[in-house]
Structures are given as structure tokens and as C-alpha cells.
Write a structure and sequence with these properties.
alpha/beta; Rossmann fold; 7 strands; binds adenosine-5'-triphosphate; binds magnesium ion
């Protein structure tokens, strides 16, 4: 496993290598292109090749979600989906991975930690003012069982919605004792989170959707989780700003939560037709190594239109490439063992 220090160094290296030229003049950030990649032979299990991806897709489609149910982890895995950059696919990945994991037989809880409430909308969970929500969990100390709602569509999936009240929580929490530990406290108090002793009804995955900032809400998530999942959009400037996120994770690890670990990187909105996307994906793989999931999420209209039907793409169009990719990513996540 690549350490956070190594990742940080690698990100620094690529940014400095590609933002200056021989004369010391700044040059635009440059990613490797498909032409650069052609110089190195692709490994046989590389799902970035069209053929390999087509085979994977047809296998996934033929097997169907249920038949591929994956084993439950030994204890609840708390994963925080974070990237302070806006619009990189945090919410889309949270809701679709959660739905996919539930379809693979897991018990999943989504915690919407973004006052925008996009994850709640996509999962068709009421989140008007007054609905028991993440705000009550964090600020009022409400028990998890009082704020989690079952998904109307997907068995095995529960959601703690975010209402607009959460927008004030960032400020209200400043004066609260142990303000960065509120989510940890709430999760620790839940009888449904833990190892086998928590019983069969326990959650296997808690997935936290963060807002696009590194404020107190995101900090609460980083303190409560063991794993960070970073979605990276396959676009120009993909790695920019990641240094700051990695530094924050390292700071939390040193001072607040020694168990935290960047376990998963997911490349999103991948457009296989462009050299740029292939270049970015390769760059991400080069700098983060084994944390990067083999499955990349393609840019797809079905993925982006599903929330307007209050659905995930997993139910809206289960056979579409976006749904199959999220299913593949969920399967990979499930297969990865986590250090206790
Ligand atoms: N694979 C995809 N294909 C096409 N569109 C996508 C895909 N993934 C995400 N999008 C679209 O990109 C936009 C941003 O995605 P999303 O809301 O998931 O990002 P985010 O990181 O949660 O944003 P924010 O930082 O505002 O919370 C949305 O309109 C979403 O529908
Ligand atoms: Mg979001």
C-alpha cells in the first residue's frame, strides 16, 4: 500500500514537473496522452482497453447483480467520499456505489453530509426542513436509528438525509465541545455498526457524501472513517488541489484518527474517446498506484439524468454502461480486504 507521504510526494512531483519548463517559465499543466501511453505495453488485466472493458461489461450484464453477491466484511466499513473540488462525482459515486453494494447483498447506510442534499434527492429520501436529518445527528446528538430512513426502492439501503439546516451546522458546531468528533460519537453509539457481535442486521458499509470543502463537516467524516474514497474526474487539472486533500488526511491521521487511510481512488466521467481522459487516467494510476480501482466510470447521460427521476442509475437503467461500471467498482471495493 502506498503511504500518504509517497502519494503527496508524487502529486508534488507531477505538478512541479508539468508546470515549469527549461527556462523556468510556467507552462500549462500537461497530462500524458494516449500517444505517450502507447510507448508502454498495457497489462493484460487493464480494463482501459475497449476490448477488455467490453468483455467485463458483457460478463457483468450476463451474470446480473444478485448472482454475484459478495461476502460481507467482518466489520462495518466506514468510507468517506471526499474531494474539495466541486462537481467531480462525489455524490454520484456515493449513491451509485451504495445502491450497487446493496444490490450485491450488503447492508448499506448513506450519510448525506452536504447541505445541498443531492444524495438524499438521488435516493428519493424526504429532506424538507423538519425531517430528522444529519443536522440532528451532529448538532442535537440524535441517535442514528432516529434519523436513518429506508430507501423506498433498494432493499438493504438506508439513508440519513441532509436538510438545509445543515448549512448552519458548520458554524454552530464551532462552539460545541469536541466538535470534530460528533459523527464518530453518533456512529460509535449505534448498535448496528461494528463487527459480527453487532448481529446480522449490522451495516456492512457506511458511505458518507461530503460537501466540496474541507470544513468541519468533512472533518467530522474524516475523523469517523477508516477509509477515504476520492473520486477524480478524468479531465484537465485532475490532480490539482489533491495535495491539499492529502495533507488534510495526513493531518487528521496524525492528530485525530490514526486509522484513516486513503483506500480507494475512483476515476469518474471517463470519456474513452478522448486522449486526454486516457492520459489523466494513466497519470492517476501512476501516482496513486494500487488504490486506484481498475473500473473507471464512463461519462454517460444515463448517469446524469437518473437523479432527476429520483433514482440511481442502478435502478434507472441497470444495464447501461454507467450502472455496470458502478457495479464493477462496488465489486472491486467489496473484494478488497481492509486492514483492521
Ligand atoms: N459518469 C457521469 N456521466 C455523466 N455525468 C456525470 C457522471 N458523474 C457525475 N455526473 C454529473 O456531473 C455533475 C457533478 O456530479 P456530482 O454532483 O456527483 O459531483 P459532486 O462532486 O458531488 O459535486 P459537489 O461538489 O457539488 O457536491 C452532476 O451533474 C452529475 O450528474
Ligand atoms: Mg455532491
Amino acid at each position: 500500500m502506498v503511504s500518504i507521504h509517497t502519494m503527496r510526494q508524487r502529486v508534488d512531483d507531477v505538478v512541479s514537473r508539468e508546470t515549469g519548463n527549461e527556462n523556468g517559465a510556467p507552462a500549462p499543466y500537461r497530462v500524458r496522452t494516449a500517444a505517450d501511453l502507447a510507448e508502454t505495453a498495457a497489462p493484460s488485466d487493464d480494463l482501459t482497453t475497449p476490448l477488455a472493458r467490453a468483455v467485463e461489461t458483457s460478463l457483468l450484464a450476463r451474470d446480473g447483480a444478485r448472482r454475484m453477491a459478495i461476502p460481507r466484511p467482518d466489520a462495518t466499513r466506514v468510507m468517506v467520499v471526499a474531494n474539495q473540488k466541486g462537481g467531480v462525482g462525489k455524490t454520484t459515486s456515493t449513491v451509485n456505489l451504495a445502491a450497487a453494494l446493496a444490490q450485491l447483498g450488503q447492508h448499506v447506510l448513506v450519510i448525506d453530509l452536504d447541505p445541498q442534499g443531492n444524495a438524499s434527492t438521488a435516493l428519493d429520501i424526504a429532506h424538507h426542513r423538519g425531517t430528522p436529518s444529519t443536522y440532528d445527528l451532529l448538532v442535537e446528538g440524535a441517535p442514528l436509528a432516529d434519523v436513518a430512513q429506508p430507501s423506498p426502492e433498494i432493499e438493504g439501503l438506508h439513508v440519513v438525509p441532509a436538510t438545509i439546516d445543515l448549512a448552519g451546522a458548520e458554524i454552530e458546531l464551532v462552539s460545541v465541545v469536541a466538535r470534530e468528533n460528533r459523527l464518530t460519537k453518533a456512529l460509535n453509539a449505534s448498535p448496528l455498526i461494528g463487527d459480527a457481535s453487532a448481529g446480522d442486521g449490522r451495516y456492512d458499509y457506511v458511505i458518507v457524501d461530503c460537501p466540496p470543502s474541507l470544513g468541519l463537516l468533512t472533518l467530522n467524516a474524516l475523523v469517523a472513517a477508516k477509509e477515504v474514497l476520492i473520486p477524480i474526474q478524468a479531465e484537465y487539472y485532475a490532480l490539482e488541489g489533491l495535495g491539499q486533500l492529502i495533507e488534510t488526511v495526513e493531518m487528521v491521521r496524525q492528530h485525530l484518527n490514526p486509522n484513516l487511510n486513503i483506500s480507494t481512488i475512483l476515476v469518474t466521467m471517463y470519456d474513452g474517446r478522448t486522449r486526454l481522459a486516457a492520459g489523466v487516467a494513466e497519470e492517476v494510476r501512476e501516482h496513486f498506484g494500487p488504490q486506484v480501482l481498475k473500473t473507471m466510470i464512463p461519462r454517460s447521460v444515463r448517469v446524469s439524468e437518473a437523479p432527476s427521476y429520483a433514482q440511481t442509475v442502478m435502478t434507472y437503467d441497470p444495464g447501461s454502461p454507467g450502472a455496470l461500471a458502478y457495479l464493477g467498482a462496488a465489486r472491486e471495493i467489496g473484494q478488497r480486504s481492509v486492514k483492521a
